[in-house]
Design a protein that fits this description.
Layout (H helix, E strand, L loop, with lengths): L2 H13 L17 H11 L6 H11 L8 E5 L5 H9 L4 E6 L2 H14 L4 E5 L13 E7 L8 H14 E12 L5 H9 L7 H13 L3 H8 L7 E4 L6 E5 L8 H13 L2 H15 L13
Parallel strand pairs: 1-2, 1-4, 2-3, 4-5
Antiparallel strand pairs: 5-7, 6-7
């Protein structure tokens, strides 16, 4: 993430008074093989999204206790899910997605990563048929809400999360917020264009244009428990997190695994991670442990 240029765009975002119109995703369920391949590639260890997957995995891990059941909504190709499951080997994960194509890719991702503690199921996050009330210790949904068609579906998804989560359970929901300026959307889309395919670049722009506004996300999240906190990237809602309080302290082995995962990121990914983490830290959203020397 290009710090100085990004800061200039964020300041202009902060000063802008207008709201951009929302344009829902052209394909609400990703099935096209070219799109799927581009998305999968971006999330691999050398992909442009690897640092964000690691960031969310680090933030999700303190919400999960050994032996618990975790539901990942709209898990896609399971790049994010695999990272979290590897950090929490004693927990039991279920990855749900509406796309049969994505679920098949997810099976390969988990198999190739040697992750045994995940099962997959087909389903719609707005109607979690077959998932009983209060049956999950933790519910996770990362970067998927913008695929929903409208605010009614957004509210339904949030309601289902609340329904299936046990009282006192862990919750982690994160997605893009809708930016105010088309030029800022284009900046984030093109900032790492040398590291991403043309198909991914097009899909990234569609995602930013399909993002719900901060007000829409907050309104839908009102159904969640009172203990859920909201964190927003300062100056502009590029990313919005709804998260319950930590449910365990990280043990030394998990902290070591996190530092090892950070060390495996490329130099560019590490720099992007630092910029991203510091940006969120400005909202009071710190990492659960130190990952690099000060």
């Amino acid at each position: 993430m290009s710090g100085p240029a990004m800061l200039a765009h964020l300041i202009l975002e902060r000063l802008s008074r207008r709201e951009l119109e929302r344009f829902p995703e052209p394909d609400l369920v990703m099935q096209d093989p070219t799109q799927v391949a581009a998305f999968v590639e971006s999330g691999r260890e050398d992909g442009v999204l690897a640092f964000t997957h690691f960031f969310h995995a680090a933030q999700i891990t303190p919400l999960i206790r050994p032996g618990e059941r975790v539901l990942d909504l709209a898990c896609g190709p399971a790049n994010q899910l695999a990272r979290v499951a590897m950090l929490n080997p004693l927990a039991h994960f279920t990855g749900l997605d509406a796309s049969p194509t994505m679920l098949e890719v997810a099976r390969r991702t988990l198999r190739d990563a040697g992750v045994p503690n995940v099962q997959l199921m087909a389903g719609d996050m707005t109607h979690l048929h077959g998932v009983a009330d209060g049956s999950m210790d933790c519910v996770v949904c990362t970067m998927s809400l913008h695929h929903l068609p409208d605010q009614s579906a957004l509210q339904a998804a949030m309601g289902e999360m609340r329904r299936v989560l046990k009282p006192g359970g862990g919750l982690y929901v994160v997605d893009f917020g809708r930016l105010k300026r088309a030029s800022t959307q284009r900046f984030f889309t093109l900032d790492r264009r040398n590291c991403q395919s043309e198909q991914f670049t097009r899909d990234y722009l569609h995602s930013l244009r399909a993002a719900f506004s901060l007000a829409e996300l907050s309104s839908a999240a009102a159904v969640l428990s009172a203990g859920v906190l909201r964190f927003v990237t300062p100056l502009a809602p590029f990313m919005v997190v709804f998260k319950s309080a930590p449910r365990r302290a990280l043990d030394p082995a998990t902290e070591l695994a996190l530092r090892q995962q950070f060390a495996r990121l490329s130099a560019t990914q590490q720099q992007d991670f630092r910029v991203f983490a510091r940006w969120f830290r400005g909202a009071g959203y710190a990492l659960p442990c130190a990952l690099w020397a000060a």
